Write a sequence for this structure.
C-alpha cells in the first residue's frame, strides 16, 4: 500500500501522536480557549511577529474557503490559476460558500503572473461584472513548482496598487520553505501576503490547518464564519497541540526535507528512462511525468500513485515525510523489469 499517491496517504508523525496524547489530560476550556491553543498561537507569533491573527481549522479546503470568505462579498471575484486547488479540487466550495466567481488563469507550470491577472482587471466599478477582490496563489503550486520571492512580491505589489488582496494556499508551505531555504515569514508576510493557509496534514499532522492573517484588520468577522461553516473545533487543543509539536525542534523542517529529498531521489532515478518524460521542474515533493499508460497501470498495482492528466498519460508521484529511498529503489527496479 505504501507508495507515492499523496502526502495525505501517510499517517501522522510519532511526535504528533505523542503531542495529542500529552494533550489528553485533564479538562481544558473548549473552542480554542485552552492553554494548548495559546501555546500554538505563540509559536506562530514567534515565526511571524506579534501583529498577526491565527486560527485553526480541520481541513485545507476549510482554510482556503474561510480565508476567502472572510474578506469578500458575493459580488466579488477571486483570481487564481486554472490548476488551483480552490478551482479544481474543492467541489465548488469556494463558489458555494463565498458566492464569488473564480477567474482562472491558464498556466503551464501552475504559477500565475501579473500579466495573467491584468486580463481580468477591467470593468472595475461596472455593476454587470464580478469585482475582483483577491488573488489566490498556491506555494508550492499544485504542480510542485515554486514562486520565487520576487515573483510573489511582484504579484503583491500589483495587488496593493489595484486594491486587491493576496492569499496564499500553503497546504505544503513547509516544503516551499525548505526548498527556498527561507524562513516562512520571508516569502509571505515580508513580501505583502495578506492571508496564509498554513498546511499541517500533508507534513505529518493527523489533521489540522492554520489560517494566518498578516493584516489583522481583515479578520474581524472570521470567527463567525468559522463557526457557521462548521470548522470550529470544540476540542481545539488536539489541533493546536499538533501544531506546537510541528513547529518546535524543526519537526516541520525535518519532515519537509525528507519528502523533498525523496522527490529529488525519484527524479534522478527515472529522468533518463526513455519511456518516461518529466513534465515539471521538481522543486518540492512532487514529480510529474508522462509514461506509457500500460506501464503506469502495471506499476500502480504495486505502488499507488495518481494519474494527473490521464488523457496524455501524465502521472503524479507525491512524496510523504515517511517515504524512503528503499521504496523508491524497489519502484525503479519494477520499472526496469517492464522494459
Ligand atoms: C494545494 C492544496 N491546497 C489545499 C489542500 C487541502 O485539502 P483538504 O481539504 O483535503 O485538506 C490540498 C490537498 O490536497 C492541496 O493540494
Amino acid at each position: 500500500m505504501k507508495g507515492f499517491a499523496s502526502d495525505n496517504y501517510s499517517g501522522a508523525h510519532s511526535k504528533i501522536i505523542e503531542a495529542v496524547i500529552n494533550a489528553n489530560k485533564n479538562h481544558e476550556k473548549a473552542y480554542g480557549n485552552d492553554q494548548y491553543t495559546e501555546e500554538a498561537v505563540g509559536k506562530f507569533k514567534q515565526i511571524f511577529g506579534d501583529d498577526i491573527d491565527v486560527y485553526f481549522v480541520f481541513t485545507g479546503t476549510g482554510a482556503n474557503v474561510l480565508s476567502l470568505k472572510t474578506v469578500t462579498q458575493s459580488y466579488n471575484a477571486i483570481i487564481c490559476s486554472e490548476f488551483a486547488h480552490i478551482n479544481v479540487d474543492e467541489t465548488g466550495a469556494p463558489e458555494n460558500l463565498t458566492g464569488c466567481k473564480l477567474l482562472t488563469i491558464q498556466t503551464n507550470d501552475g504559477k500565475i503572473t501579473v500579466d495573467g491577472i491584468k486580463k481580468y482587471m477591467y470593468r472595475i466599478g461596472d455593476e454587470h461584472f464580478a469585482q475582483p477582490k483577491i488573488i489566490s496563489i498556491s506555494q508550492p503550486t499544485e504542480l510542485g513548482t515554486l514562486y520565487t520571492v520576487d515573483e510573489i512580491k511582484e504579484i503583491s505589489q500589483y495587488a496593493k496598487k489595484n486594491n486587491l488582496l493576496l492569499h496564499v494556499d500553503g497546504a505544503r508551505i513547509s516544503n516551499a520553505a525548505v526548498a527556498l531555504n527561507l524562513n516562512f515569514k520571508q516569502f509571505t508576510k515580508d513580501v505583502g501576503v495578506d492571508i496564509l493557509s498554513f498546511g499541517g496534514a500533508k507534513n505529518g499532522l493527523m489533521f489540522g490547518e492554520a489560517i494566518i492573517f498578516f493584516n489583522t484588520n481583515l479578520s474581524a468577522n472570521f470567527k463567525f464564519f468559522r463557526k457557521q461553516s462548521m470548522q470550529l473545533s470544540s476540542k481545539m487543543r488536539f489541533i493546536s497541540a499538533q501544531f506546537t509539536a510541528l513547529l518546535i525542534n524543526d519537526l516541520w523542517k525535518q519532515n519537509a526535507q525528507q519528502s523533498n529529498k525523496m522527490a529529488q531521489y525519484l527524479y534522478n532515478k527515472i529522468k533518463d528512462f526513455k519511456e518516461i518524460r518529466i513534465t515539471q521542474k521538481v522543486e518540492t515533493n512532487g514529480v510529474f511525468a508522462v509514461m506509457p499508460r500500460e506501464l503506469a497501470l502495471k506499476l500502480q498495482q504495486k505502488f499507488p500513485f495518481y494519474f494527473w492528466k490521464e488523457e496524455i498519460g501524465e502521472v503524479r508521484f507525491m512524496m510523504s515525510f515517511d517515504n524512503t529511498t528503499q521504496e523508491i529503489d524497489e519502484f525503479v527496479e519494477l520499472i526496469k523489469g517492464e522494459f
